[in-house]
Design brief:
44 residues, alpha+beta, two-stranded antiparallel ribbon, 2 helices
Length: 44
């Protein structure tokens, strides 16, 4: 519910948001995913 509202605002206002999660289902809803592997950010 809260995430859906955040996503609506981000898209309506054409802004970005940084979301940190361990939930792969939530990450799958993002436009871009990067992951931290061995201390480095890599495209997911």
């Amino acid at each position: 519910l809260v995430f859906g509202e955040l996503l609506r605002v981000v898209r309506h206002e054409n802004i970005g948001a940084l979301i940190a999660t361990h939930n792969p289902d939530l990450a799958a809803r993002m436009d871009r995913v990067v992951m931290l592997r061995d201390g480095h950010l890599v495209d997911g």
